[in-house]
Structure formats: structure tokens, C-alpha cells
């Protein structure tokens, strides 16, 4: 541990630029220059915002009725609304840095790129994701990357409040007066600041090891592993923003999916990307990944493990085959028909089933093949009965008669209900509900753990991968819908064709308009593409469309707390990423006991073999060294060689433990009163069984599945605390936690940690 050498919070020199503080002439000049720049930048943003707002209004006002005008209008509205939203979102702390190059050029760095309103569209503010901005994050005195100086700029609204300079050219004697000798004042201030219950972005202070992960190539699978507080989540979110910027065409169109462990976590991280001006992202828990199903139910840990286990895939596949039935041999089904009863025996059904299975199509798509064979066989039976020559000659019926008979069989309600009985059309929901009512092809003990009577209990997150698996096995016979959609498309093509012809006729008119540099519609587009574009323009954003489409292939998928996902969940996610463009973020030491696959190799082997990148983040930015030392003892009790990530800070405040006597909730209430911060947040992390008792003693504090993390005091179960952080944490009755849950709970605080207990403490926490 490096705690001895670490600066203490508050011990770093700060350069607060306030009224009344004496500044040297040089400092005043520097400050004036930055203030002047920030003013100019905001004036430009105001102008852009005004133009965008006006543009949205203009674009919404119809200027023409043609297809071209409509298309352009829709595109303009979308573009300008997006620009407006981005400008509004990034307004706070728009510019946060400046790099001065050795050749005298300087660039200001910010959340988005802004250009001057001049003919050359000179860059005014460089987007943090642009290659030019990279030295801001990577340059060191050892490798200055062409930089003389790096400046961090802190603003409040439009006022510059702090400047921190780092000299990167060690031969440069020039000083501004704002030098930060340690180079980490801004980082430490960010880490020590009060929490709000919502994660903030780290764009001002991304560290070099994090920058490399954020900007790694998008193809393939990247595993980001690291202990608590190493910034895995922050890095993953900034990576999403980077990929959307770098590959706007490729990735924004297909959207980015971010999968997190629960709704509270998603609301915790939900503001990071909008603050970076990015909205093309779908945030979802596992329970939300099957459109139309909101998985609100809960499972026992055992049921979660069984439902998530790899053998479920095979069991479901076999269970689907069981729904393709045959009559008992020797007990044929009799089908009433106007021309006399028909007999459907084992042989006929067997051959039809074989032919349908040979297509290798999913159940519902193979069903028409089964039906066709059955109808064919029954028609042959009828033909034989009606047209047979009693004297053994050829059948009296001609092809037209036979076709007529076939039609009669094909539309017979009786025939249809027999086919439905032998090979029913199934929805994933009815199939999985049926399977859970009577689980087969798994050991009886496992079946007992997941058995659920039809209609009993809600869908659970662990059911979602089963529903998705079932949807794959069953397929959806959407031929009727597709035929209808194609008919609509053809109409649209015909309409577009008409528009293009009109547009050709008005060619001179289009080009007479000197102001307009736009090409006429027919120069750039044919009718089919125009029809397609109209369809695209009609639609929702990529993220919204993706949310509603089970078969959507995402541009990139980020999985947080990836160590928690089951083999069945991985199958689901990999279907959503046919190109295997994924970032997986996790910490095996924080895996819940019953969850997970075990190792990244095991998770990924079925999908990409050993072709994945693996990086480790090694610095803990959240938990002070004093708290981390205690948390590490919990894991060392099981694995003496365990090494936690090194904390970047120490606070001098030791974590404390307090025994309560009988009135545990009373002791918790007293500790909460002591710890409740005037600013920031406090979490009480306690076994769920104690929540009611504890909540009764805490004013205005409730427990529940979706806690409001923005409240000053929050009561959570250990699993709910995963991925979150608070200024202060009170852990209650740690003997009721599993090892990894306890490790998670102990590593959530950025400042202070207290432990209150009535029972004996776990061995690792004793003696404090
Ligand atoms: N470069 C940075 N600059 C400022 N803050 C940072 C930086 N890196 C990480 N942090 C902060 O450290 C805290 C922990 O980050 P994060 O939640 O991403 O860690 P994690 O590795 O996902 O942790 P866990 O596994 O415990 O959930 C957050 O408050 C984050 O904003």
C-alpha cells in the first residue's frame, strides 16, 4: 500500500480565485485571458443554441409539400433538436482544459467540439474525444507529447474559479503562478467532493490507464477488470461516448446497449452520458431485455442458479421437441370431414414431423411444413377413397379434382385443430410458463427449485434469458406481417417514383434558386432508397427501436458487473451482438456466491475462443486507504494472497465498529444521526431481514426494490449496494453477509465507514 506517501484530502494547495484575493500581475493576466475565452465560448454557444432553436422552428414549418422537402425537414428537425439537447446538457463546465504546445499553439478542451463562426470554421473548443485532445490525458514530464503545459480550468457557470497548471517541458522556465506541483489537485478535489446520489462524469480527470481503455478499438471483446473503485463503470461509460463519437455512422445507427445489475444502478449512472452530450444509448437490466416483459418477480438464489445454468439451453430445446407430438401407435386420430372421416395415424404424423424437422427451422417456422405434409397425406387418403376404381384401374380423379379436394382439407377447421394439437404454434411466454410448470430434462432437485404453477408469480430477471432462448427455438411466423409491410413499401416506392418524376419536371426551378446548393432529389436518390429513407425518417431513435426489437443487433454492448451474468444471460447478449463488439466490465472478487460463470475464459470461450483483450485497472479512486485495508482483510481471510487495488487517497479517518446490545435499530439510528452529512450522502447497508426494524427508527427512510439514491440517507441490502458509492457508509450486522457481499459493502464509502453489530463480528473484522 502507498498510503504513507499519499496526500491527505484538504492538504493540497488550492488556487481559489475569489474576489479580494491578491493575484500577481502575471496571474491576473492569465486569469483575464481565460475568463475572456470562456466568455467568448459561451457567446458562441448562445448563438448556436439560438440558431438551433430557430432552426427547429423553421424546420417544423412546412416550406414545400414534396417528398424532398419533407425528408429534409425531418432530418433538420432531428439534427437541430439533437444539437440543442447536446448544447443544453453540456452547458455546465463546457470547457475544462487547455494544452499549450511547444510550437506556441494552444487548444482548449471541452465536452463537445465548437467552431468559430468564420469561413474556415476554426475550432474554438476541441472535443475531449478528438485525437488532438489526447495529450491532455496522456502527456507526462517524461513523455510530453509535444506539450509545454497542461492547464485544468474550473468554472462556476461562466466564471473561472480555479486554474491549475502542470509544466511538461522541464526546460521551460516560464511560470504562470498557477502551477500545481503534484499535478493531482484537480483529481483529488473531484474524488473528495460530496456525492449527489448520481454518478458524475470524469472527463476532466481521466487517467492515462483509463484513457487507453476508453479509446481501445471497438472491434472484438474487451474485458476490463479491476477492484472496487478503480473506475470501471466510469471508464465503460466514457468508452460508450468515445465510440459514439469515433464511429458515429457505424455505432450510433445501431445504438449502444449498456447492461447493469439493477434499476437503482441504472438510475445512478443514467446522467453520465447525457452530460457528455450523448443520448444514443439504451440502458437496461437483464430483466428488461425481452421486449414486452417487465420482470418484476424474484427467485430464490437456487432458482437463479438453475435457470441461469448452461444445461437449460439443451433442456428447453428438448422440451420444444416434446411439443411436436404424434398419435399413439395403433390409436390414430379421426378427423371429421364433409366427405367422410379421415384417419391420421402414427406413420403419417411421423413422416410429416420428420420432414418438418429436417428443415432445421425453428418450431413455429417449421410448422407450415408439418401442416403441408399432413394436409397432403389426408388429401391423398380422400382421393383414394373417392376416386378409387373398384376394379383396380387408375384413380378416376384428375389433378383439378384433387386440387379441389386438397383445398377442402386445407381449410377444414377439424384438420387445423388436429395439426394445432400435434404441432401447436407457441409464443415464448406460453412455452416458458408451461416449462416452468413442469420442468423436464433437468435433475428433479433442480426442477423443484424452479417449478412454478401457471399464472403464479411474475416473470423474474432469470426468466428473461429463458424467454429469449425460447423465442430463438420457436421463431416467429411473421410471413403475413412481412407481406403486409412489403405491400406498404411497394406503395411508397410507387409514390416516390411519382415524386421523382415531378422533381425532374421542375429541374430548372430547383437550380434557379441561387441560394440553394442542394441537388435535386433525382440526382442523389432513386425511388427505392427514397422510400426506405422515408421509412427511416418516420421512425424513433435507434435506441428506442432497439428497445422494442428482440432481434436488434447493437453497434456495441457494454456489460457492467459482468461477473454476475449467467451462461444463459450470455447467450442472450451474444445474440444481440453478432459482430461481437463488446466491453465487459467486472471484478471477480465481487461476484455473488450463486451467480456468474467463474472466469472470463469460460464466459467467452463458446463465442470468441481465446480472442479477447484483457486489461486491469489497478488504482482505487473511491475508497480511502484506511477503509480499503479493512475490506481487504475480509477477502484475505479466504485467500491470504489477495491484493486489493491501491487507494489513491488516505483521509486519516479510521473505520470504526460498535456493538449495540439488544437494541440494534436504536444503535443504528444513533450512528446515522452522527454520520449524516450536511452535504453528500449516507448509506446504511444491512441484511434485508433487518430493513423494517431499522427503517422504523429512521425518519423518512424507506427500504425497497428501487431506492431513491438522491436522498441524504438511503437504506440498502448488500446486493443493492453493488456499483454504488456514498460519502459515508454504515454497515449493519456484517455476520449476516456473504464474503463478497461484505467486501462490496465495505468498499462503497468515499470518506467514512462505521460498522454496528449485535451478533459476533466476522473474524476478519475483529480486534478493531
Ligand atoms: N479519473 C477519474 N477522475 C475522477 N474520478 C474518478 C476517476 N476514475 C474514477 N473516479 C471516481 O471513482 C469512483 C469509482 O468509480 P467507478 O464506480 O467507476 O468504479 P468501479 O471500478 O466501477 O467500482 P465498483 O467495482 O466498486 O463498482 C467514482 O466516483 C468515479 O467517478
UniProtKB/TrEMBL annotation:
The keyword DNA-binding does not apply. Residues 205-624 form the UvrD-like helicase ATP-binding domain. One of its GO terms (cellular component) is cytosol. GO terms for biological process: recombinational repair. ATP binds at residues 226-233. Keywords: ATP-binding, Helicase, Hydrolase, Nucleotide-binding. GO terms for molecular function: 3'-5' DNA helicase activity; ATP binding; DNA binding; hydrolase activity. InterPro entries: DNA_helicase_UvrD/REP (IPR000212), P-loop_NTPase (IPR027417), UvrD-like_ATP-bd (IPR014016). PANTHER family: DNA 3'-5' HELICASE (PTHR11070:SF45), UVRD / RECB / PCRA DNA HELICASE FAMILY MEMBER (PTHR11070). This is DNA helicase. The lineage of its organism: Bacteria, Bacillati, Actinomycetota, Actinomycetes, Kitasatosporales.
